[in-house]
Amino acid sequence: MLHFVLTRKPGARTINAKTTLRLPLYGVFFAVLLVALTMTACRRAGSTGPTPIPSATATPRSTPLPALATDVPIGVETNPIRMVLRPQGAEAGARSAANALATALEEETGLTIDVETVDRYAEALAALCESVTNRITVAWVDGPTYMAALAQGCGMPALAVERGSGSNASTGLPAQIIASSTLNVEDIAGLTNRDFCRLDATDFYSWFVPSLVLRANGLDPVEDLRSVTDYEDEVELVTAVAEGRCAATGIIPTIFDDIEVLETVRDDITVVETTVPFPFDILMYPPETPLGVRVALTDALVAMSNSTTGERTLSSLLDQDSLTRVEPDDFDEFADFMNSTGLDFATLGN
Q: What is the pTM of this model?
Protein backbone atom coordinates (compact mmCIF):
# COMPACT_ATOMS: atom_id res chain seq x y z
CA MET A 1 0.00 0.00 0.00
CA LEU A 2 1.31 3.42 -0.95
CA HIS A 3 0.81 6.42 1.44
CA PHE A 4 0.76 9.95 0.12
CA VAL A 5 1.45 12.96 2.41
CA LEU A 6 0.37 16.40 1.40
CA THR A 7 2.50 19.24 2.67
CA ARG A 8 2.14 22.96 2.44
CA LYS A 9 4.57 24.61 0.15
CA PRO A 10 6.97 26.73 2.14
CA GLY A 11 5.95 30.35 2.09
CA ALA A 12 2.37 29.54 0.96
CA ARG A 13 -0.40 31.42 2.69
CA THR A 14 -2.74 29.38 4.88
CA ILE A 15 -6.42 30.24 4.80
CA ASN A 16 -8.37 29.55 7.97
CA ALA A 17 -11.43 30.77 9.83
CA LYS A 18 -9.69 33.90 10.95
CA THR A 19 -8.78 35.00 7.40
CA THR A 20 -11.17 37.48 5.81
CA LEU A 21 -11.45 37.46 2.02
CA ARG A 22 -12.20 40.93 0.74
CA LEU A 23 -13.80 40.97 -2.77
CA PRO A 24 -15.52 43.86 -4.62
CA LEU A 25 -19.32 43.61 -4.94
CA TYR A 26 -19.28 42.87 -8.67
CA GLY A 27 -16.85 40.11 -7.93
CA VAL A 28 -19.29 38.47 -5.52
CA PHE A 29 -22.10 38.66 -8.05
CA PHE A 30 -19.99 37.22 -10.81
CA ALA A 31 -18.92 34.33 -8.61
CA VAL A 32 -22.51 33.45 -7.65
CA LEU A 33 -23.62 33.56 -11.29
CA LEU A 34 -20.79 31.28 -12.40
CA VAL A 35 -21.68 28.67 -9.79
CA ALA A 36 -25.35 28.73 -10.83
CA LEU A 37 -24.56 28.20 -14.51
CA THR A 38 -22.21 25.35 -13.74
CA MET A 39 -24.84 23.51 -11.69
CA THR A 40 -27.44 23.94 -14.43
CA ALA A 41 -25.11 22.53 -17.06
CA CYS A 42 -24.38 19.51 -14.90
CA ARG A 43 -28.08 18.72 -14.46
CA ARG A 44 -28.73 18.89 -18.22
CA ALA A 45 -25.85 16.59 -19.03
CA GLY A 46 -27.13 14.05 -16.55
CA SER A 47 -30.71 14.08 -17.89
CA THR A 48 -29.98 13.05 -21.46
CA GLY A 49 -31.07 9.44 -20.87
CA PRO A 50 -32.37 6.94 -18.36
CA THR A 51 -30.22 6.17 -15.40
CA PRO A 52 -28.43 2.87 -16.10
CA ILE A 53 -29.18 0.04 -13.75
CA PRO A 54 -25.99 -1.27 -12.12
CA SER A 55 -25.22 -4.82 -13.08
CA ALA A 56 -24.62 -7.43 -10.40
CA THR A 57 -20.97 -8.13 -9.65
CA ALA A 58 -19.94 -11.53 -8.29
CA THR A 59 -18.35 -11.47 -4.88
CA PRO A 60 -14.75 -12.76 -5.15
CA ARG A 61 -14.23 -15.98 -3.21
CA SER A 62 -10.92 -17.64 -2.29
CA THR A 63 -10.05 -20.82 -4.15
CA PRO A 64 -7.95 -23.38 -2.30
CA LEU A 65 -4.52 -24.02 -3.91
CA PRO A 66 -3.80 -27.57 -5.09
CA ALA A 67 -2.04 -29.66 -2.47
CA LEU A 68 1.75 -29.77 -2.79
CA ALA A 69 3.24 -33.12 -3.74
CA THR A 70 4.61 -34.94 -0.72
CA ASP A 71 8.22 -36.10 -0.95
CA VAL A 72 8.46 -39.83 -1.51
CA PRO A 73 10.25 -41.39 1.47
CA ILE A 74 13.80 -42.58 0.94
CA GLY A 75 14.15 -46.33 0.61
CA VAL A 76 10.70 -47.21 -0.74
CA GLU A 77 10.22 -49.05 -4.02
CA THR A 78 9.61 -45.86 -6.01
CA ASN A 79 12.58 -44.08 -4.40
CA PRO A 80 15.30 -46.68 -3.77
CA ILE A 81 18.67 -45.97 -2.18
CA ARG A 82 21.48 -46.37 -4.71
CA MET A 83 24.67 -48.07 -3.56
CA VAL A 84 27.52 -47.75 -6.06
CA LEU A 85 30.76 -49.72 -5.86
CA ARG A 86 33.70 -50.89 -7.92
CA PRO A 87 33.90 -54.70 -7.60
CA GLN A 88 37.17 -56.11 -6.28
CA GLY A 89 36.42 -59.67 -7.32
CA ALA A 90 35.86 -61.35 -10.67
CA GLU A 91 33.80 -59.20 -13.03
CA ALA A 92 31.81 -62.20 -14.25
CA GLY A 93 29.99 -62.67 -10.96
CA ALA A 94 29.77 -59.03 -9.92
CA ARG A 95 26.24 -58.40 -11.19
CA SER A 96 24.89 -61.50 -9.50
CA ALA A 97 26.64 -60.60 -6.25
CA ALA A 98 25.27 -57.05 -6.42
CA ASN A 99 21.70 -58.40 -6.75
CA ALA A 100 22.28 -60.76 -3.84
CA LEU A 101 23.60 -57.90 -1.71
CA ALA A 102 20.58 -55.73 -2.53
CA THR A 103 18.18 -58.53 -1.57
CA ALA A 104 20.00 -59.26 1.69
CA LEU A 105 20.04 -55.58 2.70
CA GLU A 106 16.35 -55.19 1.91
CA GLU A 107 15.50 -58.18 4.10
CA GLU A 108 17.64 -56.80 6.93
CA THR A 109 16.51 -53.16 6.81
CA GLY A 110 13.14 -53.09 5.06
CA LEU A 111 14.62 -50.50 2.69
CA THR A 112 14.71 -50.83 -1.08
CA ILE A 113 18.31 -50.62 -2.26
CA ASP A 114 19.71 -50.79 -5.79
CA VAL A 115 23.34 -51.97 -5.82
CA GLU A 116 25.17 -50.82 -8.96
CA THR A 117 28.67 -51.72 -10.10
CA VAL A 118 31.00 -49.33 -11.95
CA ASP A 119 34.37 -49.65 -13.63
CA ARG A 120 36.05 -46.63 -12.03
CA TYR A 121 35.98 -44.94 -8.65
CA ALA A 122 35.40 -41.64 -10.44
CA GLU A 123 31.96 -42.95 -11.44
CA ALA A 124 31.19 -43.80 -7.82
CA LEU A 125 32.23 -40.28 -6.80
CA ALA A 126 30.02 -38.69 -9.46
CA ALA A 127 27.03 -40.72 -8.29
CA LEU A 128 27.67 -39.79 -4.64
CA CYS A 129 27.90 -36.09 -5.50
CA GLU A 130 24.66 -36.19 -7.51
CA SER A 131 22.67 -36.90 -4.32
CA VAL A 132 19.95 -34.39 -3.48
CA THR A 133 17.35 -34.13 -0.76
CA ASN A 134 15.17 -37.24 -0.90
CA ARG A 135 17.27 -38.85 -3.67
CA ILE A 136 20.48 -40.32 -2.30
CA THR A 137 23.35 -42.47 -3.47
CA VAL A 138 25.88 -44.03 -1.11
CA ALA A 139 29.23 -45.07 -2.54
CA TRP A 140 32.27 -47.20 -1.79
CA VAL A 141 35.42 -45.28 -2.76
CA ASP A 142 39.18 -45.73 -2.44
CA GLY A 143 41.56 -43.40 -0.59
CA PRO A 144 42.22 -40.76 -3.28
CA THR A 145 38.53 -40.66 -4.21
CA TYR A 146 37.70 -40.26 -0.53
CA MET A 147 39.85 -37.12 -0.51
CA ALA A 148 37.99 -35.77 -3.56
CA ALA A 149 34.61 -36.48 -1.94
CA LEU A 150 35.63 -34.61 1.20
CA ALA A 151 37.00 -31.69 -0.81
CA GLN A 152 33.71 -31.38 -2.69
CA GLY A 153 31.58 -31.80 0.44
CA CYS A 154 29.82 -34.80 -1.08
CA GLY A 155 29.93 -37.22 1.84
CA MET A 156 31.29 -38.51 5.13
CA PRO A 157 32.76 -41.96 5.90
CA ALA A 158 30.86 -44.60 7.86
CA LEU A 159 32.48 -47.98 7.17
CA ALA A 160 35.87 -49.19 5.92
CA VAL A 161 36.98 -52.48 4.45
CA GLU A 162 39.36 -54.30 6.74
CA ARG A 163 41.70 -57.06 5.56
CA GLY A 164 43.67 -59.47 7.66
CA SER A 165 42.76 -60.69 11.12
CA GLY A 166 43.76 -60.05 14.70
CA SER A 167 46.82 -57.86 15.10
CA ASN A 168 47.40 -58.00 11.34
CA ALA A 169 44.01 -56.50 10.46
CA SER A 170 44.17 -53.11 8.77
CA THR A 171 42.01 -50.72 6.77
CA GLY A 172 44.78 -49.86 4.34
CA LEU A 173 48.10 -50.82 2.84
CA PRO A 174 51.21 -48.64 2.44
CA ALA A 175 53.39 -48.49 -0.65
CA GLN A 176 57.16 -48.65 -0.81
CA ILE A 177 59.50 -46.82 -3.14
CA ILE A 178 62.42 -49.15 -3.87
CA ALA A 179 65.70 -48.42 -5.64
CA SER A 180 68.67 -50.37 -6.90
CA SER A 181 71.24 -50.91 -4.13
CA THR A 182 74.03 -50.13 -6.59
CA LEU A 183 72.86 -46.54 -7.14
CA ASN A 184 73.15 -45.31 -3.55
CA VAL A 185 69.77 -43.59 -3.58
CA GLU A 186 69.20 -42.57 0.04
CA ASP A 187 65.99 -40.54 -0.23
CA ILE A 188 63.34 -39.39 -2.70
CA ALA A 189 65.40 -36.34 -3.69
CA GLY A 190 68.04 -38.79 -4.93
CA LEU A 191 65.67 -39.83 -7.74
CA THR A 192 66.09 -36.49 -9.49
CA ASN A 193 67.09 -37.04 -13.13
CA ARG A 194 66.97 -40.83 -12.67
CA ASP A 195 65.23 -43.52 -14.75
CA PHE A 196 61.95 -44.67 -13.20
CA CYS A 197 60.01 -47.79 -14.12
CA ARG A 198 56.39 -48.89 -13.65
CA LEU A 199 53.81 -51.35 -14.93
CA ASP A 200 51.83 -48.68 -16.79
CA ALA A 201 50.45 -45.18 -16.41
CA THR A 202 47.29 -46.42 -14.64
CA ASP A 203 48.90 -48.73 -12.09
CA PHE A 204 48.21 -47.65 -8.53
CA TYR A 205 51.32 -48.82 -6.64
CA SER A 206 54.02 -48.59 -9.29
CA TRP A 207 53.03 -45.16 -10.64
CA PHE A 208 50.13 -43.32 -8.99
CA VAL A 209 51.48 -43.56 -5.44
CA PRO A 210 55.11 -42.83 -6.46
CA SER A 211 53.87 -39.74 -8.29
CA LEU A 212 52.26 -38.53 -5.06
CA VAL A 213 55.41 -39.27 -3.07
CA LEU A 214 57.52 -37.33 -5.54
CA ARG A 215 55.17 -34.33 -5.31
CA ALA A 216 55.14 -34.49 -1.51
CA ASN A 217 58.94 -34.21 -1.68
CA GLY A 218 58.95 -31.27 -4.06
CA LEU A 219 59.63 -33.20 -7.29
CA ASP A 220 57.56 -33.19 -10.46
CA PRO A 221 57.09 -36.76 -11.77
CA VAL A 222 57.05 -35.46 -15.33
CA GLU A 223 59.77 -32.81 -15.26
CA ASP A 224 62.26 -34.16 -12.69
CA LEU A 225 62.66 -37.79 -13.82
CA ARG A 226 64.96 -38.57 -16.72
CA SER A 227 62.74 -41.30 -18.15
CA VAL A 228 59.80 -43.59 -17.30
CA THR A 229 59.75 -47.15 -18.68
CA ASP A 230 56.85 -49.65 -18.60
CA TYR A 231 57.41 -53.35 -17.79
CA GLU A 232 55.21 -56.34 -18.43
CA ASP A 233 54.68 -57.63 -14.88
CA GLU A 234 55.89 -57.35 -11.27
CA VAL A 235 58.70 -59.87 -11.71
CA GLU A 236 60.23 -58.02 -14.66
CA LEU A 237 59.66 -54.67 -12.93
CA VAL A 238 61.40 -55.52 -9.65
CA THR A 239 64.17 -57.42 -11.44
CA ALA A 240 64.88 -54.39 -13.63
CA VAL A 241 65.37 -52.28 -10.48
CA ALA A 242 67.54 -54.91 -8.82
CA GLU A 243 69.79 -55.10 -11.90
CA GLY A 244 70.07 -51.31 -12.20
CA ARG A 245 68.28 -51.05 -15.55
CA CYS A 246 66.07 -48.46 -13.89
CA ALA A 247 66.63 -46.59 -10.68
CA ALA A 248 63.37 -47.08 -8.81
CA THR A 249 59.72 -48.10 -8.77
CA GLY A 250 56.79 -48.45 -6.38
CA ILE A 251 55.58 -51.75 -4.90
CA ILE A 252 53.33 -53.12 -2.16
CA PRO A 253 55.36 -54.29 0.87
CA THR A 254 54.05 -57.86 0.60
CA ILE A 255 55.30 -58.39 -2.96
CA PHE A 256 58.30 -60.49 -1.92
CA ASP A 257 56.01 -62.76 0.09
CA ASP A 258 53.45 -62.94 -2.68
CA ILE A 259 55.96 -63.68 -5.47
CA GLU A 260 58.51 -66.21 -4.26
CA VAL A 261 60.89 -65.85 -7.19
CA LEU A 262 61.61 -62.26 -6.18
CA GLU A 263 63.34 -63.44 -3.02
CA THR A 264 66.42 -64.03 -5.16
CA VAL A 265 66.81 -60.29 -5.88
CA ARG A 266 65.69 -58.90 -2.53
CA ASP A 267 69.23 -58.16 -1.35
CA ASP A 268 69.85 -56.00 -4.43
CA ILE A 269 67.05 -53.59 -3.51
CA THR A 270 66.90 -50.69 -1.06
CA VAL A 271 63.64 -49.36 0.40
CA VAL A 272 63.84 -45.61 -0.02
CA GLU A 273 60.47 -44.72 1.55
CA THR A 274 57.39 -46.41 3.00
CA THR A 275 54.21 -44.36 2.72
CA VAL A 276 51.25 -44.03 5.05
CA PRO A 277 48.62 -46.75 4.52
CA PHE A 278 46.34 -46.07 1.58
CA PRO A 279 42.79 -47.00 2.66
CA PHE A 280 40.89 -49.88 1.14
CA ASP A 281 37.30 -49.10 0.14
CA ILE A 282 35.37 -46.66 2.33
CA LEU A 283 31.57 -46.36 2.45
CA MET A 284 30.47 -42.72 2.26
CA TYR A 285 27.02 -41.25 2.88
CA PRO A 286 25.93 -37.94 1.32
CA PRO A 287 24.89 -35.18 3.75
CA GLU A 288 21.26 -35.58 2.66
CA THR A 289 21.01 -39.07 4.20
CA PRO A 290 18.53 -39.24 7.11
CA LEU A 291 20.10 -40.52 10.32
CA GLY A 292 17.68 -43.43 10.54
CA VAL A 293 18.58 -44.63 7.06
CA ARG A 294 22.29 -44.33 7.76
CA VAL A 295 22.08 -46.26 11.02
CA ALA A 296 19.90 -49.02 9.56
CA LEU A 297 22.07 -49.54 6.49
CA THR A 298 25.37 -49.39 8.37
CA ASP A 299 24.18 -51.86 11.00
CA ALA A 300 22.93 -54.23 8.30
CA LEU A 301 26.27 -54.21 6.47
CA VAL A 302 28.19 -54.88 9.69
CA ALA A 303 25.82 -57.73 10.53
CA MET A 304 26.30 -59.22 7.05
CA SER A 305 30.09 -59.03 7.37
CA ASN A 306 29.84 -61.07 10.58
CA SER A 307 27.67 -63.83 9.08
CA THR A 308 28.95 -66.65 6.90
CA THR A 309 26.53 -66.12 4.01
CA GLY A 310 26.67 -62.33 4.16
CA GLU A 311 30.46 -62.31 4.38
CA ARG A 312 30.72 -64.34 1.17
CA THR A 313 28.34 -62.04 -0.68
CA LEU A 314 30.24 -58.94 0.42
CA SER A 315 33.65 -60.49 -0.20
CA SER A 316 32.95 -61.09 -3.87
CA LEU A 317 32.43 -57.33 -4.22
CA LEU A 318 34.68 -55.73 -1.58
CA ASP A 319 37.33 -58.40 -0.88
CA GLN A 320 37.01 -57.70 2.83
CA ASP A 321 37.70 -59.86 5.85
CA SER A 322 35.48 -57.58 7.91
CA LEU A 323 33.91 -54.12 7.97
CA THR A 324 34.75 -51.58 10.65
CA ARG A 325 33.01 -48.34 11.63
CA VAL A 326 35.08 -45.22 10.96
CA GLU A 327 35.08 -41.46 11.43
CA PRO A 328 36.97 -38.79 9.41
CA ASP A 329 39.74 -38.51 12.01
CA ASP A 330 40.60 -42.18 11.47
CA PHE A 331 42.15 -41.05 8.18
CA ASP A 332 43.92 -37.92 9.42
CA GLU A 333 47.43 -39.28 8.76
CA PHE A 334 46.48 -40.26 5.23
CA ALA A 335 44.80 -36.89 4.62
CA ASP A 336 47.87 -35.03 5.87
CA PHE A 337 50.06 -36.91 3.40
CA MET A 338 47.67 -36.32 0.50
CA ASN A 339 47.44 -32.62 1.28
CA SER A 340 51.24 -32.38 1.36
CA THR A 341 51.27 -33.15 -2.38
CA GLY A 342 49.76 -29.73 -3.10
CA LEU A 343 47.10 -31.22 -5.40
CA ASP A 344 43.61 -29.75 -5.55
CA PHE A 345 41.44 -32.82 -4.90
CA ALA A 346 38.20 -30.98 -5.54
CA THR A 347 39.39 -30.30 -9.07
CA LEU A 348 40.85 -33.76 -9.55
CA GLY A 349 37.57 -35.27 -8.42
CA ASN A 350 35.85 -33.60 -11.36
A: 0.78
